[in-house]
Amino acid sequence: xxxxxxxxxxxxxxxxxxxxxxxxxxxxxxxxxxxxxxxxxxxxxxxxxxxxxxxxxxxxxxxxxxxxxxxxxxxxxxxxxxxxxxxxxxxxxxxxxxxxxxxxxxxxxxxxxxxxxxxxxxxxxxxxxxxxxxxxxxxxxxxxxxxxxxxxxxxxxxxxxxxxxxxxxxxxxxxxxxxxxxxxxxxxxxxxxxxxxxxxxxxxxxxxxxxxxxxxxxxxxxxxxxxxxxxxxxxxxxxxxxxxxxxxxxxxxxxxxxxxxxxxxxxxxxxxxxxxxxxxxxxxxxxxxxxxxxxxxxxxxxxxxxxxxxxxxxxxxxxxxxxxxxxxxxxxxxxxxxxxxxxxxxxxxxxxxxxxxxxxxxxxxxxxxxxxxxxxxxxxxxxxxxxxxxxxxxxxxxxxxxxxxxxxxxxxxxxxxxxxxxxxxxxxxxxxxxxxxxxxxxxxxxxxxxxxxxxxxxxxxxxxxxxxxxx
Length: 471
Hints:
alpha+beta; 5-stranded antiparallel sheet
């Protein structure tokens, strides 16, 4: 990976005659790899890197991704006493991708992926020791066969070199690609007329060709634009302000991929959630949740965008991200990808090992547990967890209850502050109704989608339609 401040990409960009719209950009594989890496980023990583780049004190306002930024900020501000350990809170706020090795080899890695840690025996020249990669967020402690606790080190073990058959990261290194304004990606070897037809280009549209340079700031602008606009290339290249096309959208029907439907329906856990509703307006005031629902919300940060698309059936309402994912599924064939299995890996979007709780509602998958590049599976008795004392994916302590507002802001539940809030809003207790809801797969998917698209009413959009009530 190059120094982010030094990296530059050259794009051949075709504009329309009025120079008001990008018709398409022609890019090399290294830029296409960075673009496709958006799908590998966990949602928590996207929130974190955008907050850092567009943080307070910058000229550009802070970027809020639906209600996820509120959720991230409130969990960050939640006192450490409400987490099982400070370590699990750190893991929660800094999720890592199962594509960490690939991202570190990108020409530009916007995720700030850290080198792989490894375990080593503290005894020099230990007869029983072997260095082992630390590839699980759960198993964070290892015991050497000599009986000593192995220590974790970063960057002292040589990382494996890329073994891709074609020299690229996600795409073949000699390939080039056409990218539309709304982030549809086509191999440059696709039929010429068909590509023009797919792009909707006619003779009267053609304007001029220009060479545009993208660096770190432009890539970050493109990531931001992909979340808020249907025309992110034009927004970045022509300096247009992205328009939030999706914040006010209601969560429409989502399609769970056929291969997951039966499995998810039969295995999905259900969680009880209590919500307070104002009877006169049918407005959701807040939810009162225990640790199970809180752990579900925490789990959203570890899900990469590819897995989000997979779960929601390419129907996130984020048009550009949907198009990018759809390009991997339908437009880019295996001959243009760096390895034979990279298509399926990008499509399914597995989580890094150790994030998934046995009580997880969503049908997520994770990497298998191994600790070396050759797939060696160690003896489980030698591994344990210090950060996750209650098991994988268990972050929040009980029996404390938590208040969750419609925009996913989380605070410890406090009766006095609730009553004071009712008084300030002139809400009478007789006008408040408590409902108990069952949160299963369908509701979890709706909340996931609403958290991405609604800045102020994620719970309303995710829960207030066709929700099963416990009688």
